[in-house]
Amino acid sequence: MEKYLGKKKVAIFISGRGSNLKSLIKYFKKKNSLIKIVLVISNNPDAKGLKYADRSKIINYGFKSIRKSIFENQSLKLLKKYNVDILCLAGFMKILSGNFIKKFSKPILNIHPSLLPKYKGLNTHARAIKNKDSFSGATIHVVTQKLDSGKIILQKKVKILKKDNPKTLEKKVLKIEHEIYPRAIKNFLSNL
Ligand code: GRF
């Protein structure tokens, strides 16, 4: 990886659509960027997001549904091979084991579509609407063994309108996800 000398190397795990991956690729692709996405891994070989990595000539792997421990071991080997400085989860739908987090030993960030600590887990938009919350948003946090509970790095709110439904709210939140994740990674890496 000589060509990335002096750059911070990022790996991204995805499971599906990959719109966050797409926005991260766009943000970090500038030639003079000090941050480079060097590896994308999916636990789903059909993840649409892998196409974005392909198009940008980023090394990527889509593993067929294998046991989690096998997925994690294969991923660890790749993370080591490409000597990444940070792993960012972007719509990665598996919960990483404590063993993986310990063995990787570098920071892992995640993006979550709610204002954590509210609504950990799934169906965040429907839950926020059901509870008649006035705001939702997105959170970037450090990944620990406890689901969606690590240190919060950055959050941004969006207003929930009366006319919103889970779909429209998802769209609004996704827009701010694309805006804050690149920024959060950049700031986090500059403080490492
Ligand atoms: C995003 O809402 C992200 O916050 C959540 O899963 C969704 C993934 O979307 N963890 P995409 O695959 O990045 O389009």
Explain how this protein is built.
The chain has 6 helices and 7 strands; from the N terminus they run βαβαβαβαβαββα. It has helices spanning 19-28, 49-55, 68-81, 98-104, 124-130, 166-190; strands spanning 8-14, 35-42, 60-62, 86-89, 108-112, 135-142, 152-159. α1 runs parallel beside α6 (166-190). The radius of gyration is 16 Å and the shape is globular. The two termini are 20 Å apart.
In short:
This protein is α/β, with parallel strands linked by helices and 192 residues long.
Number of helices: 6
- CATH homologous superfamily? Formyl transferase, N-terminal domain
Sketch the major β-sheet: 7 strands, mixed
CATH topology: Rossmann fold
**Number of E strands:** 7
Along the chain, the helix and strand elements come as EHEHEHEHEHEEH
**Approximate strand percentage:** 15-25%
Heteromolecules bound: 5-O-phosphono-beta-D-ribofuranosylamine
Any idea of the CATH class?
Alpha Beta
Question: What separation lies between the terminal Cα atoms?
Answer: 20 Å
Structural class: alpha/beta
Categorize the overall geometry.
Answer: globular
Q: Determine the oligomeric state from the structure.
A: single chain
Task: Give the number of domains.
Answer: 1
- Integer-rounded radius of gyration: 16 Å
Unreliable runs, pLDDT <50, ≥5 residues?
Answer: none
Mean pLDDT: 96
Tell me the helix content: 25-40%
How would you write the strand order of the largest sheet? 3-2-1-4-5-6-7
CATH architecture: 3-Layer(aba) Sandwich
